[in-house]
Amino acid sequence: MRIIFMGTPQFAVVSLDALIKAGCDIVAVVTAPDKPAGRGQKINESAVKQYAVLNGLKVLQPEKLKSPEFIEELGSLQADLQVVVAFRMLPEEVWSMPPKGTINLHASLLPQYRGAAPINWAIINGEAESGVTTFFLKHEIDSGNILFTEKVTLTGHETAGELHDRLINKGAGLLVKTVKGVESGRYSEHPQEQLAAGVELKRAPKIFKEDCLIDWNQPAKTLYDKIRGLSPLPTAYTVLNGKTLKTFQSEYEVIEPGMQPGGFLTDNKTYLKFATGDGFISLKDVQMEGKKRMDIEQFLRGNKL
């Protein structure tokens, strides 16, 4: 099959590499346009573009996915199948173009956690399992017929970054399995409507800065899950002495705090813990506004509270 691959971040690179190593014919890669980034406004190329250039793959970087020029060039490639991993929402004229359709890899067990941040929300909500799903694209986001899934068991202590690293390889393997299945015709489709019947669906919307602020009135376990679910990005934070304090790792205990939520205890050497609605959160790995990331002992040596 002639395959067009669409993706942008490192998560997608691992899948693209797996497809190529499995002998798939990638006729082009579609990725985000180059953008200036950082203080020097240096032009930043997506991880997928960097990989594609290194491996001699044709690269398309449309500003607008509906532009006639892009649609025409896409059609001229005569792809049998399109594969999407961590890319933008596609218009129908794009995803409906290949005769074998367009498949997507999603980092959740659909129909649960449809949306932009499935890994973060699975951790934030304290789930016991997660996984990856492949499905055919259709109009509504993340709602097409499911092809294959693979589950992973969660420990209850990993961060979103650690789950991302586990799913990145699981997803690549599942994608190769899916492409081979579509090529041979050995697959079955499972409508999400049937799987979702009578089930409460949890969403995975994009996370904004205001979602990352820690509300110390909440239970300790809830905040522990939130901190690890936002680590390393976009990162949970609180305000300490008028400055933003990001936190990447923590521990929690459920015990009568004996103080108002948001109050803190410290020996200014080894620990800093904040009172919650029903206990304490001990911060272990932090970054004060304008400073580098450091463990709590390093932080306390430079910041007497």
Describe the structure.
- With 305 residues, the protein is an alpha/beta fold.
- The chain has nine helices and 15 strands.
- The longest helix is centred in the middle third of the chain and has 25 residues, at 160-184.
- The relative contact order is 0.10.
- The model has no long low-confidence stretch (mean pLDDT 96).
What are the defining features of this structure?
single chain, 305 residues, alpha/beta, 9 helices, elongated
How are the SSEs ordered, and which strands pair?
Blueprint: E1 2-7, H1 10-21, E2 25-30, E3 35-37, E4 42-44, H2 47-54, E5 59-60, H3 68-76, E6 81-85, H4 92-95, E7 102-106, H5 118-124, E8 129-136, E9 146-153, H6 160-184, H7 192-196, H8 220-229, E10 236-240, E11 243-254, E12 264-266, E13 272-275, E14 279-288, E15 294-295, H9 296-302
Parallel strand pairs: 1-2, 1-6, 2-5, 6-7
Antiparallel strand pairs: 3-4, 7-8, 8-9, 10-11, 11-14, 12-13, 13-14, 14-15
Helix pairs in contact: 1-6, 5-6, 5-8
Rg measurement, Å = 22 Å
How many strand elements? 15
Please state the oligomeric state of the protein chains shown. single chain
Tally the helices.
9
Poorly predicted regions: none
- Biggest sheet strand order reads 5-2-1-6-7-8-9
In short:
The chain has 9 helices and 15 strands. By secondary structure, the chain is α/β, with parallel strands linked by helices.
